[in-house]
Amino acid sequence: MVGGYLLSRSARLALALTLVAGSASAQMENREAANGLPNVVVLATGGTIAGAAASDVQAGYSSGQVGVEQLLAAVPQAKKLAHLRGEQISNIGSQDMNDQVWLKLATRINELVAKPDVSAVVITHGTDTIEETAYFLNLVVHSKKPVVLTASMRPSTALSADGPLNFYNAVGVAGNAQAPGHGVMVVVNDWIHGAASLTKTSTTAVQTFMSPLSGLLGTVAYGDVEWYRLPIGKNTSQSEFSVDANTVLPRVDIIMATENMDGALIDAAVAAGAKGLVIAGVGNGNMTKSALDALAAQAKKGIVCVRSSRVATGQVGRNVEVNDDKDGFVASLGLNPQKARVLLRLALLKTNDVKTIQRYFDEY
Prior knowledge:
Number of domains: 2
Strand content: 15-25%
Shape: elongated
CATH architecture of the largest domain: 3-Layer(aba) Sandwich
Distance between the termini: 53 Å
CATH superfamily of the largest domain: L-asparaginase, N-terminal domain
Helix content: 25-40%
Strand order of the largest sheet: 2-1-3-4-5-6-9-10
Largest sheet: 8 strands, mixed
CATH topology of the largest domain: Rossmann fold
CATH class of the largest domain: Alpha Beta
Number of strands: 14
Order of helices and strands: HEHEHEHEHEEEEEEEHEHEHEHH
């Protein structure tokens, strides 16, 4: 309530944006007074950050309802950090992310970062599969220029929406002078994650993203960045993987290990056309003897089989509880099942040699 009157939803959103602007105004004026602003292209794919609901206090909403120009207009303060222009790649909830959008996105990013007048790229995305998209791009974008994904847990119409500040901070990171060489990053809730390290840990909490094994790349507060470390593993300009708009990614399925698991799902996945399998194993990538036997049989037929874990943290070591050398398996090491699937799909474009693919898991 202001001056005895209740504020409308649009007025509340405008007030929130004004508060963000006031907190950052001095910092933005300093940046503007500096040598010129970077040129950042915003690629929108949809997600909750572009979502809308009938009420500002309801849990249900529809993703991908707001276009890129509306997103840019909603955070005018970001234009004090960089020269911005936007392109709409897709407008879907990230649960519907697919190979076609991945390839379109990767191809467009590689085109943009090759241009001398493009300093960085920011991508708006849904939270459900952002870690997979980020890791995919981390392997197929060939530039040291910053590529930053951002998202939100609350739709644009929500009371206390997190999207505007996440977007503002993502632009701040993308335009930061020290950002090049950090690989593909995800900026949410003031934290800067490396694509290989982050994972979603809560279905609804704003602080859903963590980097449990290797920690954050840095933090960002109202556009001001503090760097902690470089990313783990090869990425972007060092990567040997490439795709284009015509690439056909091979099918790789993830199968979760459970009590009393047999080999039926393993065999069914191969029968459905899978060229590789990732087992979200129990503990250190383990599974029942029946499942191990079925997996080993498929490995002997040339299906590349990766052992990962359904456990949230920790690495899956090679030849620890399972004889990977004997059975012809690949150990995922620090990659969770969903990221192991991304790497395996790209690896299978080049080879199905298990030793070579294990090297990829060691290096990426």
